[in-house]
Fold this sequence. Notes:
Chain A is 34% helix and 15% strand. By secondary structure, chain A is an alpha+beta fold. Chain A has a 6-stranded antiparallel beta sheet with strand order 6-5-4-3-12-11, with no helix packed on it. In chain A, strands 7-8-9-10 form a 4-stranded antiparallel beta sheet, with no helix packed on it.
Amino acid sequence: MTTTHDGGNGGSQPPVDLxxxxxxxxxxxxxxxxxxxxxxxxxxxxxPGVNSKAEKRVVRNIAILxxxxxxxxxxxxxxxxxxPWEFKLGDTKSDYFTPILGVSLAIALFGLGLxxxxxxxxxxxxxxxxxxxxxxGATPDEQLLTGQTMVYVAEELGVQxxxxxxxxxxxxxxxxxxxAAAPLIGGLIKNPHKPENGQNPxxxxxxxxxxxxxxxxxxxxxxxxxxxxxxxxxxxGQMTVFPGxxxxxxxxxxxxxxxxxxxxxxxxxxxxxxxDADARNKGSMFGDYVAYSKVCTHAGCPAxxxxxxxxxxxxxxxxxxxxxxxxxxxxxxxxxxxxxxxPLEVDSEGFFVAxxxxxxxxxxxxxxxP
Amino acid sequence: MTSSTPGRRWVLARRRKAPSRARRRLGAAVRMxxxxxxxxxxxxxxxxxxxxxxxxxxxxxxxxxxxxxxxxSCISCHGENAQGVVGRGPSLIGVGxxxxxxxxxxxxxxxxxxxxxxxxKKPQFDDTQTKQIAQYIQELGGGPQLPADGNFSxxxxxxxxxxxxxxxxxxxxxxxxxxxxxxxxALSSGKFAPALHDATPQTIYSAMLTGPQNMPVFGDNQLTxxxxxxxxxYVTTQLQQDKDPGGIFNLGxxxxxxxxxxxxxxGIVVLVFTALWIxxxx
Amino acid sequence: MKRRKxxxxxxxxxxxxxxxxxxxxxxxxxxxxxxxxxxxxxxxxGEIALFSFIVLLLTGTFLTLFFDPSMKEVVYNGSYTSLxxxxxxxxxxxxxxxxxxxxxxxxxxxMHHWAALLFVAAIVVHMARTFFTGAFRxxxxxxxxxxxxxxxxGFLEGFTGYSLPDDGLSGTGLRIASAIMLSIPVAGxxxxxxxxxxxxxxxxxxxxxxxxxxxxIPAILLALIAVHVGLVFKQKHTQxxxxxxxxxxxxxxxxxxxxxxxxxxxxxxxxxxxxxMAGLFQINPIWLFGPYSAANVSxxxxxxxxxxxxxxxxxxxxxxxxxxxxxxxxxxxxxxxxGLGALTTVxxxxxxxxxxxxxxxAIHNLLQRPRDNPERTAIGAMAFAFFIWATLMxxxxxxxxxxxxxxxxxxxxxxxxxxxxxxxAYFVAFRVCLGLQMHDREVLAHGVETGIIRRLxxxxxxxxxxxxxxxxxxxxxxxxEYGGWVVPKKMNRVGALAPAxxxxxxxxxxxxxxxxxxxxxPVTGPxxxxxxxxxx
Lengths: 370, 282, 536
């Protein structure tokens, strides 16, 4: 029973003569540990003897795990090659491609992982070692030497003594730094208030703006571009409509999707009463029809969960609720502003048009929103 | 399609084309006249029978059976001759047979109690009885009807475009409440849009046509019968029958909520136990 | 020509000597081989994040080979029937193609996504461990701050990745991100315009997020992870107090071979869990979401779980708008910008705050059990109660739907809960800590409760306590000083009655044979070892 007990500073035992031929390899390892300020507390086999039954069992189990891992890895490759993988509708074999890959790869990885872990945990000798930390910085002498060296380096440059250089550095280098940053920042900056093609900036306008349509009123269309007649929307129904301009239903006009609602007559009465009492929404309804921007005033999700009996409009993202019959006033949730109403009219051919653009800015709120 | 709008159906068939402006104008005028004439004709043919309460309605045999069932199970809330009872149940005049089929075949009606939303349960009436009640309500007040041929969906193998068109329409009109995966969703104050996992083609079709409870109505002018069939095809084929290709479990297709639950309940838990085994608690 | 005889057995030694002569590696290499690491399950939580990150790099590189970060409109014509003929962005099309027209692509994509969720989840759990055990104290304050930064970077990396496929869900997320930028006072519209290159959504954002997702953020992540792990290595890992363990040493096992093998095995396990989840659980089925359209949305639109706390805060925020003349600050600003900013920066300063409060300038290498610093534990419980409740509120619509609760009631419970639960968590955690500490001290003073009741000659009944340490002349235990380490609470068999039936529940114990190390003399520790030592 040998014991090494060297404490932290590694001086309590004389160094071992490494040229001594009687030293075992373990003795040399121990000497290395000692020189690294590490002492061994416990180092013992987990088995009662060399080639004991228990050891053989562990070795066998590890071998089995490795073989399972190999087989599963092989299975992964085979399935990857032969299993039909191309998507087919219905409950087909291809739907099991991903699960088979996942399970076989997982078995292979778990097998390998468990084998390595078992090797480390069950087969290697049990060991407890103590290493000294050497916390708390260098000796005061060392700190002094390094500190003074640094101060001296600064003195050598002599910026303190040469005020002209100090100013020149600021004047000379600052623009260079700004020059490096300018293209990055300047390239990204885009003025959101800049008018485009003589029209309002896109932030304050949607595709329903007649100005962009050569002064013609913009039709309300479905996503395929077909215009909408009043009778196309059922009573108690709603339809998502887009501006009838080229690309009006694409994401280019992400602010334009509008919800056209055909209210029941009794609800329409209430809605009209509220709309006419409001300066902005006065006369914006057409018959029993009302159209609100679909873009939530809170965070911009399409607020489109229309409850045709309770007349609420719910936004699925943050649960703001708007009252359709009361100018889409928010009645619950985080939204603060009502949904803008699109003034409706029917043109000579019987299709819905927007009398003008939305009178409020569409979409989520911001600092300088008018 | 018997009752109201034969003229409009003809219009619908042409709607998706883009004729020249002059032709459109002319066509619009002609169509308007035709529609007016037809609507008038239809009205005179059907309206007196449909709305006159004092004259007894001549009911067909099946409607007679339906009236029996109605008088036994529905009359307490919906009133005599389905006129409605204030504070208990709405009038069923004009809701149409499609509505009856939806409400009764999904067990929502007869409702057990008054609540925010009637829930789906085991239906009380079999198919024949449902049809009889539907026939009775139809003959009482008219309204939307399901297609007579009972054809609610397309075959995606012969008509694969139905799937992609149906998918587009589904995402435009349905997902906001029922979810991309058809898992359903919450509405305001305790109401909800049900999951579509076990909805039959007839249920989906009739729901779109009639807009039960808080669901908006998607009449035949808005979504043509073909478009409705496309949506039904997408729901039944893609959302119901198609096995999810991304795994054995689809986590209910609720999206990131259940995925986040899974990463903790499975991933983190398994790995913490692994770590416990590797390093122990000492 | 004379042929030199090559001695193969000598070759490795020759090569090693040659390398050392040129690069002087022998001493540092031995220091690494012999470095001692402490062993505890909770020290492996950070490794889960590290290994997930490696999986993310591997799978992510695969995905880049097929992904096209372009918003150009194309018409889909791939294998997935239900989207054929649908116009979509090239980014979405390529994400579809790599899912359905690349063999095994869907599996790799799902691995990438699950690994991302696991990465951030492990970061949070690891962070909790570090916080509750006081591992952030001097000298590790900087590494704690780096860790907090890593969470923020993981958050951004995750969000940019979530946005890339340009499907219906990611587009909705981007829309909210743009609204959050817009909500910033004064500069909001300018920031949003700069990020999106004009009005939302524009046609640049996917390309910009792509380069951020695959280059900028991963590069910073990689660098910071290297520094993070390097500092742990340099400063040596903290350890729990316990027998032999002091503030100036590390008790554990050598890095090679045992520790590294355990790490390797654990890496394989993490990899395996990710593969298994990717195979069994479908994640982010973009084919059901469809291409992004500004007009479409799905119920249950949520961000991935690590962004959900922010979404939850947005949901429960009351509609308070601040008006300043013609200008206004929308309610979105407070939870999304101020909230996220506070949640990711305030924790960075916690180590300094705590040190200053306790005027503590000492170096701490020994961990504290959560119960031993009730105040910190309570603060942590408060913070996590807030975080968890906010995260739950991010899924409040799904919870409302599936448990048949009114959505409005859920929102209100979220509002009230956010105010009430954190202080409650503080109070409860504080009391629980004190209680646990008290019980530990009691056991140290009186011994372990044995459950054996003895009747004294006076007729009095007393419970027999098994002393933990030496006893005085009367047989009463001499109180042991509180050491901040596990106190045994269960009686051991020494001196107690043997089980009535041996071998029924447990096998009959046989004395183990004396252990012998293979080929080398066994070494055991001396008896005069330091006992339990506290960190101070």
